Amino acid sequence: MSDEPVQISCHDQAIELLQLRIQQLHARGYKIVDWYWTYVGDMEKKLPGWENKSRLQIRCIIKGNSIRADWCEVRWYGSSSKGDRKSVRRQIIKPKEAYGYTLSKLQTLSPEWAKEIVTETEIQLADIRREASHLVKAIIYIKHAQSASS
């Protein structure tokens, strides 16, 4: 029997599996955001008037191994009759070290008909952010382990 340790190098395979899971989470987040937008679009068609429009927008994108599911507030300025009406988007800040946005903040920007779907959407996206954060950390640690074994 040899005293030489058996070296198993599967760092890259582990990273690939973690990246695959991140891709799956992004696809799930994208579907949640798409479902949100479909609902908002349908409701805004049914309820005319600026007071019934949602001031919240959500997106789910992937950059490298990171998933971003960000809310922003839309404010409208100017006159639609004069043709100078413009929208300004303002990023809503998620609390540091938190995976989810403050629901009370999102609720204040939501029309009554959207409060439930905003809450449901954010709860699901917070779960995705949480898992994705752990996966990214795992990838970083595996890369450190890989460089240490070289």
Describe this structure in words.
The protein is an alpha+beta fold and 150 residues long. It has one domain. 51% of the residues lie in helices and 17% in strands. The protein is built from 3 helices and 3 strands. It has helices spanning 11-46, 103-108, 115-149, and strands at 56-63, 66-77, 86-91. A 3-stranded antiparallel beta sheet has the order 1-2-3. Strand 1 (56-63) and strand 2 (66-77) form a beta hairpin. The longest helix is centred in the first third of the chain and has 36 residues, at 11-46. The model has no long low-confidence stretch (mean pLDDT 90).
Q: Which value, in Å, is the CA radius of gyration?
A: 21 Å
Order of helices and strands: HEEEHH
**What's the helix count?**
3
Number of domains: 1
Structural class call reads alpha+beta
Low-confidence segments, given as residue ranges, are none
**Morphology:** elongated
In spatial order, strands of the major sheet run 1-2-3
Mean pLDDT, to the nearest integer, reads 90
Could you tell me how far the N terminus lies from the C terminus, measured between alpha carbons in angstroms? 25 Å
Quaternary arrangement of the chains shown? single chain
Percent strand equals: 15-25%
Strands, total number: 3
Estimate percent helicity. Answer: 40-55%
